[in-house]
Amino acid sequence: MPAIADGAGPVPVTTQHNDNRRTGANLHEHTLTTHTVGPTTFGKLFTRAVDGQIYAQPLVVPKVDVPGTGPRDIVYAATMHNSVYAFDAHDPAATAPLWRASLGPSVPLPDPQIGPSGYRDIAVEVGIVSTPVIDTARQVLYAVAFTKDAEGYHHTLHALDLGTGRESLGGPVRIAAEVPGTGEGSSGGRIAFAGRRHIQRAALTLANGRVYIAFAAYGDRRPYHGWVLAHDAATLALTSAYVTTPGTRMGGIWQAGQGLAVDDSGCLYFMTGNGGFAADGSELGDSVVKLTPGLAVADWFSPYNNAALDAQDADLGSAGPLLLPGTSLLLGGGKEGKFYLLDTADMGHFHAGSDAQIPQSFYVVNPDGNRHHIHGGPVYGDFPGGPRAYVWPENAFLRAYRFDGRRFATTPVSTSTTTDPTGVPGGSPGMPGGMLSLSAHHTDPATGLLWASHPYRDDANQAVVEGILRCYQATDLTRELWNSKMNATRDDVGLFAKFVPPTVTGGKVYAATFSGALHVYGLLPHVYGLHPEQRPRTPRK
């Protein structure tokens, strides 16, 4: 069966949440609109089998030169079995991968060297946890694999040719680093990177001619630190390293899979988890950190209740920062369920007693005795009536906050009302809440769609559970257009892929799962015979 023409090819999605500002938005989507997405017009087109759970967001590159076949639009999927797959992005009949690369033996779980006793945050095995990043100029995909062999545990950076999957740029390169420090695990005033202690969950970031790789820990098993490593994108050589807590402990960078954000000057931003903190900025657990391209600290912020966050395991770094387009502002929040709006030109550091020095902070859900953790990060879209940031915390409904260019209105401008037949309170059954993506054609409200993946009825904190994919009208979250349970026989997701947002481009939605499958959704074959009002429209200019 030939692929259905979408009317417009996919735009590249080469990094987690679409761009280095981490907006989560594709603003060049022509085909999927409020008029075309519904239970009779949209659904699962095909599924591709893979060899493990998918923690990495699928990436898409159009017109890749594949030897022997010519240019192909490709979707890339990386698994916890340390495999990277390249599939035709459109053709339901092209069931076999264009190529598959195996990056070494994964680490089966349980493993006494990785997590503490009873560690269940990850099931089955550890391999490629983070979302890779693609360099279209060099035509390579960078990925970090975690392996175990006779020599021990290793993180390895690979550069795979987009068209063949072969190793490129002289890779792979085994990751190793050392920095000055006297914190936990140090020896002789130096801290060495210990692969078996560190998980590489945050998405890879490509900027400044470097690949940036961040690390946290398995279940806070100490000793560990938050690391950022910079590798030359052309040679894969290590160029610099940074540790968040060189004199104390912990401070991991995990962000529920979100990548580091990058501003127009090339500075990097991330949020850290529980760990050591010093008011002079020398130790930056539970903080928002700004680094120069060479990994020197340029600025930072930490909430006035840093010590309480650390004591309560309320990681600020359970999500990553969003850099608001057209401004110098950063938005982020973590397990406390509070948003912080920071000015990246003066991030505010630490003030005892209050956070009055920053532009704004507010709870996304008023404290009510339930957890309202934010994971992964908000997404951002600009529609008539003003820009909006969208977030779906645990045990709460999806919500949108209007932005006036300086501050956010603290009452949501729109909130979803969907509750499943199971009666899940608040529409989201706990951890991790909803993982979000936005699609639209520029600011046309008729094309604005908010996509969300979340557990269907169970908490996914330490369990593999059933998932659901949903689509809402972005300008009115009370209007759910479609979900994968409306016609479950055709569209069911299967097992929820924790922390993985859907990828939307070229009239398709690519959904990772823990069911050993990548699902591809889009307009159903009969849709082009529908009434003109339901057909894909040419968006207004």
Keyword list:
541 residues, mainly beta, 5-stranded antiparallel β-sheet, 2 helices, 38 strands
Short account of what is shown:
This protein has 541 residues and is mainly beta. Helix content is 2%, strand content 35%.
Strand content: 25-35%
Low-confidence region ranges: 1-7, 531-541
**Strands of the largest sheet, in order across it?**
1-32-33-34-35
Q: Label the structural class.
A: mainly beta
What do you see in this structure?
This protein is an all-beta fold and 541 residues long. The protein contains 2 helices and 38 strands. β25 and β26 form a beta hairpin. The longest helix is centred in the middle third of the chain and has 6 residues, at 306-311. The radius of gyration is 22 Å and the shape is globular. The chain starts with 24 loop residues before the first strand and ends in an 18-residue tail after the last strand.
Task: Please specify the SSE layout and strand pairing.
Elements: E1 25-26, E2 42-49, E3 59-66, E4 70-78, E5 83-88, E6 99-102, E7 107-108, E8 125-126, E9 133-135, E10 140-149, E11 152-161, E12 173-174, E13 178-180, E14 190-192, E15 198-199, E16 205-207, E17 210-217, E18 227-232, E19 238-243, E20 261-262, E21 268-271, E22 288-291, E23 297-301, H1 306-311, E24 322-323, E25 329-333, E26 338-343, E27 360-363, E28 379-383, E29 386-391, E30 399-402, E31 414-415, E32 435-439, E33 449-455, E34 467-473, E35 476-483, H2 488-491, E36 503-505, E37 508-512, E38 517-523
Parallel strand pairs: 1-32
Antiparallel strand pairs: 2-38, 3-4, 4-5, 5-6, 7-8, 9-10, 10-11, 11-12, 13-14, 15-17, 16-17, 17-18, 18-19, 20-21, 21-22, 22-23, 24-25, 25-26, 26-27, 28-29, 29-30, 30-31, 32-33, 33-34, 34-35, 36-37, 37-38
